[in-house]
Amino acid sequence: MIGAVDDKEPKGRMEVAHEFFDAIHTGKLRAAISALVLEEIERSPERVRKKLTDVLRGLPLEVHDLSSEDEELSKHYLETGAIPQASNNDARHIACAAVNGVDVIVSWNFKHMANIRVVRAVNSVNIRLGYRTIEILPPEEVIGYEGR
Question: For position 5, what pLDDT does the model report?
Answer without folding.
Answer: 56
